[in-house]
Every structure is written in C-alpha cells, then in structure tokens.
Amino acid sequence: MSAGSTFPPLLPKVDAILVLDGEGKRLAGKYYGDFMKAASPADGSSTDNAKNAQSVEQLRGSFERQLQSKIGGIAARPDAAEVVTVLGKTAVFCGGSAGQGGQGGGDVRVVHVGPAGESELVLAHLAEGMYEALSHLMGGSTDRNMILDNLELVFLLIDEHCDGGIILETDPHKLASSVLLRDEQESNMGAERGQQQPVQGGGMGMGQGFGMGGDMTIAQALRQAREQIISNLSQQG
Amino acid sequence: QIIVAGNQQRQRRPLQIPSTMESQQEEGLTINTLMKEVQGTLDKFKLEDDNGMADYYSPYANLEKAQVLHEARCFHDPTAVRESPRKCCTVIAQLLHLTNTGQYLNSAEATEVFFGVTKLFMSDDASLRRMVYLFIKDVAETCNPDDVIIVTSSLTKDMTCDVDLYRANALRVLARIVDAAMLGAIERYVKQAVVDSSGQVSSAALVSATHLFEKNAESAAIVKRWIGETTEATQSPNEMVQFHAMQLLYQIKKHDRLGMQKLVTQFSQRNTLKSPLALVLLVRYTAKLLHDEVSEGRLPGTSFQNGSNFSRAGYAFLEASLRHKSEMVVYEAAKAICALPNIEPQELAPAVNVMQLFLSSPKPAVRFAAMKTVSQVAVNHPRMVSKCNEDLEALIADANRSIATLAITTLLKTGSENSVDRLLKQISVFLSEIPDEYKITIVKSLQRLCLTYPAKHRVLVGFLSNFLREEGGFEFKRSIVNSIVSLIKAVPETTESSLLHLCEFIEDCEFTMLSTQILHLLGELGPATAAPARYIRFIYNRVILENSAVRAAAVAALSKFAARCPSLRTSIVTLLKRSLDDEDDETRDRASVAVSVLKGAMEEFPYVPPVEDPEEADAEPVADVPQVGDPAAYVLLQGLPMSFERLDRSIRAYVQAPAAMVSAEQLTLSTLPVVEEHAEPEPVADEVDDMGADSALKAAVTGKEEKEVVDPAAAVYAIPELASLGRVFRSSPATELSEEETEYVVRCVKHVMPDHIILQFKIQNTVEDQRLVNCTVAVEGESECFEVAGEIAAESIKYGETQDAFTVINRNADAPLAPCNFECILRFGVVQVDPKSGEDESEPFDEEYPLEELEIATSDFMAKVAVPDFRQAWENVGNTNEVLEKFALQFKKQEDAVAAVIDFLGMQPCDGTGHIKPGEGGKKPHMLHLSGVFVGGTSVLARAQVAAQGDASGVLLKIAVRSDDATVSRMVADCIR
C-alpha cells in the first residue's frame, strides 16, 4: 500500500454507490469522478461516445463481478455494515442474504465504494443511512422485485444522498422525506383531478401511501404480506 | 465451510420484521384475516398463486433503447405532458435505467432526448420536475455543453422561487452547467443560499460551491468571495450544513497554512461542531497540519507535546477526540495519531488502547477499520501492538475473512519466535477455508516471517510445502513456489529440504509453467547439493509422465546433473537415451545434444571413482566435479553471457550502426555492441499488507510504462562523416549547458567511441524574432589525451526549433585518461526575423554566448552493464589486476556516499546493493557490488565497502577494482574524488 493511501482524503468523496441484487446485478447505481472510467480521454469527442460507453460498461461490469465474488454470501445487518476490499478500494455494504433463499433483510445490497484511505466507519455510516432510507421507502421489504418496481425512488434516493461524490445527507428519515416530498403534493393533486394512477404492481401506490401519512396503509401492508406469503409458498412448493 | 456456518448463524437471528407489519398486527389483524385479504388482492390482480411474480410486469424489465426513445417523444406533446406527468416520470426513469443495462445513448440521441426533457419545464408537477433535474444532471456530461446552456434560465427561475426542494435541486443542477461568467451573474443568489435557513438549500449551495471550486480557476476565484457566508454556515444548527461548510472552508484556505492552523485551532477549542462528519474532517485537517509541521521541519524535537503551540494544541485535540461519543470521530483520531510521523510510544499508547477496544466491537466495519490500522502500526511499532495479540488471535475466527487475514498477517509481524509454532497451527486450520487471494497474502507474510527468524526455516518451509499439496489455483501455487525459491536465495540452509518439497510437488502438479520452473531450479541447484542422485528419480518421472514442455525441461535438468557430476554420467546417459525417440522435437533435440556431448566428454575424461582406502577413511571425500576443460561442462552449464532482452537490444544496436551488415568482421557475442542497463526503479517492498492492491491492476499500470528504447546514437549515424568514425560505444544522458529559460538552451550528449568522443549539442532557439545560422559550439580544454578534431555546424535554427551541432574530439589512447573540463562557447550568426511572417529582416551578424563547462570524466567511458552472477564473475577475473584503495569521503550519510560512489564510477550496481536497505542505514558497513564495461570492451568489476564512522565526520570507503587490464583497473579506482 503506498503511503498516499494511508492518509484519509481531505475532501471525502465516494467513488460509487451501487444497489446490487443477490446475484450481484446492478439494479441502480452511480459511479462518481474518474472511478472505473476508461483510460481513453475523459472529455470524449462526441462521435465515439457510444464506443467509450461500452468499454466503461465492461470495466464496471468486471468491477462488480469481483465485488460480488467477495460480498456474495455475506449478509450484513442494516445497522452493522460489512467491509471488503476490491481492486484497492474499500467497499462497505448493508443488506444481502447469506444463502440463496432470499430471506433475512432482503436480498438487495447497498454498496458504498470509497478510496482505500477513507475511513471504513464513515463509509459504514453512509451505507447504513442509505440502506435504512431505502428500506423505509420500500415499506420495509428490500427485495429485488420491490426495488425494480420503484427504481424511480431509488434514483432519487441516490441523488438526495450524494451529489457528485460528495455526501449530501445521511439521515435516513430526512432522505426518505426528501424523496417522497413530491408524492405528498402529487397525491393531493391526483386526488383533485380525480385521476386514477396506473398502479403497476403497487410500485407507485407505495409511494402515494407514504405520502398520505408517512405511515403504511392497509393496502401496503397487504401487499407486503402477500409477498411474504408467496415467497414462503414458493419455497415450500 | 466456516463461511456457510457463519451465515447460518446469522440466519438464526430473528428475522427483520418491518415495524409497520408489527403495528398492523397490534391492531388486531390475525394471520387468517390477512390471508383472506391477500387472496382478494391476488384475485384483483389476476395473478396466479405460485408463479404470480413471474407474470408480474415491471416497467423497468427488458427495456429496449429504441422503444424508450420512442416513448420519450411524448415529451414534445404539451397535452401529454400536462395530463400524465406520471408517465413522463416513468419514461425518464426508464431512460436513466437504460445505462444500468448497458444501453448508453449516443450523443445525437442524448441531445434529442435532452431537448424533449427541456419541454417538461412546462409542467408544474413537482415529482416530474424532480425527475427532470435528475435527468439533466445525468446527461450534462454527455451532451454538448452549448445545448445544455438553454436550460439555465428555467433553472435560474426555479432557484429563486420559494419552494426549498426546487431551490436546492436547481442549484445543484446549475453548478454542473454554468461557466465562470454565468456564475458571476447568479453569484448573488448562490451566496444567499449558502446562509439560507433551510438546511437542504444551504447544503446544496455549499456542495455546489465545492464542485465549482474544483472545476476551474475562474469559478474558484468567485467561490473564494463567499468565505464570510461559508464561515457563517459553520454555525448552522443543521449538522450536514456544518460538515459541508467545513469542507468548503478547507478548500478555500488549504494553501494558507497559518489560516488553516487558525481555523483548526478555533474549531477544536470552541467545540461548536456537533456533526460527527464535520469533526472527522477537523481531525483530518489537524493531522495534515501536524504532518506538515514535521515535514517542513518546524518541529524541533520528536514529541508533539513539546513542539510549537500549534503542534501541542493539535495533538491535544486529537487526544481529546479519542473520548468523543461518536465511534467515527474516535476512530479517526486514533488513526490520525497512529499515522503521525516519528511518534513517541507514550503518545501512541492511548490510540492503540482505543484500537484494542474496537477490535472486539460487534460491528464488522469497526473491527475491520481497527484491524487495518493495527496492522499498519505493527510495521513500525510491533511491540506496541503485541499487547493486542490476544484480541488478534480471537479475530482469526472472524466471519469476515478480510479481518481474519489481516489479523493473521499482523500476528506474523508481532509474534515472537517461540509463538511461531502455535500460530502456524492456527493458520493451517484457517487457510483451508479462505479464498486464494487471502492465502497469497498470508504466504507473503510467512515468507517475511522466515526472513525475520531464519532459525525457523525448517518449520516454515515445511508449512508452505504442505500448502503446495492442498487444493488451490495457479496464482496461489505460484506464490508459494516463488516464496520458497526466494527463501532458498535468502536462507541457503533451506535449499535441500525445499528442493525435496518441490520435487514432491511436481509429482502431482497440474501447472506446466510451475513444473518447468521447478525443473530448471533443480538443474541449477540440485547438482551442488550433498546427494544429487536423489533428485534424478523425480526428474526422470517427469520425462515419462508429462507433456512435451515439461519433458523438455526435465531432459535439460538431467543433462545439467550429468555435466556437473561425473559420477552420475553413465546412469543419466542411459536415461537420456530413452528420450532420443521422443515424439516432441524439442525434447528429442535436447536429449540428443546432451547424449552426444556427454559421450564425448566421458571418452575424454573417463570417470574414476575415488579409491576406497580404509586407511584414509577420515580424509576429505574427493569432490565430484568435472575436470578442467570438460566439454560437457562447457556446453551444458555455461549460460548465455547476457540476458535475452539485452541480446535483443544489442543486436538491434549492431544492425543500426552503418556498415555493420557489410563488414567482414565475424559476429560473436563479444563483438556485439555493449548495451547499458535501463535505469529501473527499484521495486518497492510492500511492507504494509497489500491485500487490497490487486495484481491485475498493478500489471495494467506497469504494462503501460514499457516504451520503445531509442538508441541515442542514431543521430550520429545519420551523418555520414561521423558514421565513418565507427560504432558508438556508449552515449551519456544529456547534460544541460545552459540555465533553463535562457534565450538559447543547449544540452550536450557525449557519444564515446574507442578513439573519439563526439559531442552532440542540442541547441534550441527560444527567441521569437531571431533565426540562428551556422551554429557551432567551440570547445577548449587543456588535456593531454583529448584534442578537438572538427566541428559540424547546425545550419539554421528557427524560433522554437532544436537542431544538433557536433564537435569531434580525438582521444590519445597512449596518454592515460584524466578527467578534463572544457570551456564551451556557443558561436552563431543571428538573422533578425519578422515573427509574424517569418521572413528575414537583416543580414546575419556574429554572436557569442557563453555556456557552462563540460566535463569529460573517466566514468563517461564506462558502460553500465550488469553481470548475472557477480560472485562468480569476481572469482573468474581473479586478483592479478586488482587495485585496492582507501578513501575518506565527506558525506554525512551512508546512503549519500553509496549513491556518489556509483555516480563516480558510472557502473551498474549488482545484486540489489545499490541501495541501503531501509532501517539499516548507518549501522553497519554497506557492501556495494558494481560492474561495467570499459571502452574497448574490458569488463570491470568493483567491490566497495562504505562504512559510516559514527561521529558524522564522514564515511570510509574501501574499494577493490578488478579487470583484465591493470591500467583500466587503476583508472577506475582513480575515479573516486
């Protein structure tokens, strides 16, 4: 380890925030700064943008595979993030499940990747904050399908959590309410216009419910119960 | 299996039941009523019970780019935007999700979508607006900046409205797209936002300012003007605002040392920062300033507590932070204290105590962080860490394998010699359960441990060898083999047992590369051991059982045994004969060469077994070595005198020299041009545990640095008159003859030939309105052995150009070489030029320009050439032409003296003796091995002992120079000044 990496960065920035499913597939995520960018010129002349993007995607893909090979099979409690090092970076994550069953705190992992010199405790603080906000937004169930249904909220959460690598907010409640603020207004507006929002698998309904009282509605609880039971049934079957 | 067990343990913990579920149950919903409701819901969605999830359609599943782009056209339809903002939101999210599935928008697509998105500003829908912000930020990097600018006015409007959410987001988007000029226009609003009562807005403004500060110097200059507002923001009750304000304040002040010190002192004493993150920053800034105090030499003693006001206050703050209530701050302070340079043990102790507590934390991140820091402290202060040994041993069983690995490698550093056996027992249980990558780390630590305690080599090598037989991938096996091999070199006593372990390994080795490497090693080292015959069986088994590459290596190894040990020749030849009809060409060829050479040698020097004389039973056994002039020994044992890489470069240099291809001279290894070693950076020993640094990444980095080596002599060969003088022996690196940034920059390269020296002057013209014509460098010096013979002028040098002028110096080979200084004057004609048109405006007039002196020293005639085996080469040359000298040198430090000796002689350090090992400086005399080739092709070797005299009065140098030519040896020894 070079001497430089032992000193913690004076302007702390995360290199990436990823939401990965149990198999390590990226459901949502953001890479910041130059991390995992191709060696080709960063400004990128407009013509070969697509080609550039492909190689970036490959780099990221291989990084995520290496990450998954280390974090797969480790379940981290929401309040006690786990740490691994990948390609000289420190990766801290919450969530995930130990076996293939998909039980426990849901099979999605929230991973924060930071430079080697960054304090693991700071990264853990971030990962725990975002994971809690995420599970709050998803009504307590952070499984893969739930996240996929509500990607919009996940994107917004990442954006409220981190701006260009600099951490904006870590408090789970503040994060969740920033993400949901719009739903409060919107659900009112929707009610005024008498429009029926298309409810796709309950994804948006979820958000609306949150907006109404910040607490869970019966419909949400039912949806959750339904999913739990279905997953139980399918495991037995 | 432990991993699985650990996970099961976790699973046994109570499932995380969402709190809302619990509340529902409290309200009296039994599981039965829930089931009923669920059934109803299921019917409503017409989903099957079991495969219900499979039928469910997610808006983000199986996205096609073309389809989403088509959907995105609805942004242009005002009614659609007004009526169904939800749909627009979904489409934007789909667009953002495309990148997750690897389907990137190309520039044209991005621009089109971007214009569509700008239309969405028409809608007042809050969630849609929020998505629009998100999208613009995302594409701002890929779109043409000129296009992005058009949203500025919409954003500026949002930034000044009264909804906090809009303001905060608009600010963050704006920061991405504005340039310095535009920033000036909106400065007022941003400044206001910094001190806004809403934490969200204030944070957004501060973070945006931090980004802007990094963006370019113009924006940074504007941001600097907000220092008052930023300072005010540090007093905010909102913790994140404090954090962001600290961050920006540091950015603004980071080059102002006193300002920073004041800032840090203020905040650490006033105790107003409540945010743990902000305190973490403050700790880091303090640590940075303390480092600077030391590195810039403002700390007179070694203790921070006795230092300047600031270093005392800084250390006190770090120490006080160890008692903060947030673990994050405590850890940061402890880590900072551990990393302070030259820290005294008693100042370190409180930090280590904290780390020790953290080692048994229930949180994995805390354990990991503490473990990592402890392992770093162990490098310099193993004794401080040894009190944590018990905690470390407990961590070997940690479920997080990274922590366990770090614990083991740390224990290997801190453990005492008598704890080695116990540790190994623990490791052997552990090693079988972890991935290869961690194993490699441990193997490296074991290797280091063996170097620390050579007495333990038997146990350690045995331990390593056991793992050779375990399951494992190529990288893991290779790391063990490499460790064993390097231990053989460092601790020769391990040779025999290691070789036997390796023999057993190749009995069942699936990796051809490792087998061949080991067979080669056996061929090199096996014959010199006490009982070479015992290795033959292992090697011959390879000939019978393996693939062609391994067979060839085994045949080569066998023939080396035969060549070195005449007593084994008869039996080995019998074995080798069986390979004469091998189906592989290479194996067959090697076998037939070996058989025929050995047969010849056996006829010429038949082996005479030592006479069994009962009376002389105690006598020394006769050495089983080939006799002088044995052809087998010559053919089979003598290696190539240079590495393949050097041979390659040497032949290239030969071909490049003109007339080489038509010369009648016979091409032999000794007449090839001498090529010098590259100045390679010494590989830095990874003292700190490097489990994070991935080898693949390192390879990618180093791979880039390989570049084509250009022969500097090419410039000489390009000029026919100079080329006819012969081949250049060596070319020196360029030396500056003028100060930087003068009107005319001159650098000189010395090309040394046996009888001449060609000075190549690279002259650069930096005067815009001048053209230089007929440039020469006049060289004058008083010397018996050098005489200026001729000049070739650079005809014309335009502004900005660099051209070469040459001066040829004859060397009088009869006179002894003596260093000589030459005065150099640049002579040239100046033509005034119109800088715009480039046309001449005047007739040339003569000018002179004095340059610095040029030195030609003996070391210029020495090529840096390494020998593969210094010890053997030293013995081979013999002491007939040896010159011994003693000098007292005026150097304060031993390492300076070593560097100077290398520089004086201009020779190549061998066996890694060019640097003093860290930590050993000054303690004992350093032995320096140097080799080189003197002009004319004489190999020169030198051994120099550099000893510090302890009382800083200088160093004592003893030097011995050997070569085939007494005058050369003398000249080289006289290089020391």
Describe this structure in words.
The complex is a heterodimer of chains A (237) and B (977). By secondary structure, chain A is of the alpha+beta class. Chain A has eight helices and seven strands. Chain A has helices at 3-6, 49-71, 120-137, 144-149, 151-161, 172-193, 203-213, 218-236, and strands at residues 16-20, 26-31, 82-86, 89-95, 109-114, 162-163, 166-167. A five-stranded antiparallel beta sheet of chain A has the order 2-1-5-4-3, with helices on both faces. In chain A, helix 5 (151-161) crosses helix 6. The longest helix of chain A is centred in the first third of the chain and has 23 residues, at 49-71. Chain A starts with a helix and ends with a helix. The model of chain A is unreliable at 1-5, 39-47, 100-105 and 182-216 (pLDDT under 50). In chain B, 52% of the residues lie in helices and 12% in strands. Chain B is an alpha+beta fold. In chain B, a hairpin with a 3-residue loop joins strand 15 and strand 16. Chain B has 44 helices and 17 strands. Chain B is globular. In chain B, the strands form three sheets. In chain B, strands 1, 2, 3, 4, 6 and 8 form a six-stranded antiparallel beta sheet that branches. Chains A and B meet through strand 2, helix 2, strand 3, strand 4 and helix 3 of A and helix 1, helix 2, helix 3, helix 7 and helix 9 of B.
Mean pLDDT of chain B: 78
Number of strands of chain A: 7
DSSP strand content of chain B: 5-15%
Categorize the overall geometry of chain A.
globular
Helix percentage range of chain B: 40-55%
Radius of gyration of chain B: 38 Å
Task: Outline the low-pLDDT stretches of chain A.
Answer: 1-5, 39-47, 100-105, 182-216
Count of alpha and pi helical runs of chain B: 44
Radius of gyration of chain A, rounded? 19 Å
User: What percent of residues of chain A adopt helix (DSSP H or I)?
Assistant: 40-55%
What structural category characterises the helix and strand content of chain A? alpha+beta
End-to-end C-alpha gap of chain A: 51 Å
Give a short account of the largest sheet of chain B.
6 strands, antiparallel
- The total count of strands of chain B amounts to 17
The count of helical stretches of chain A stands at 8
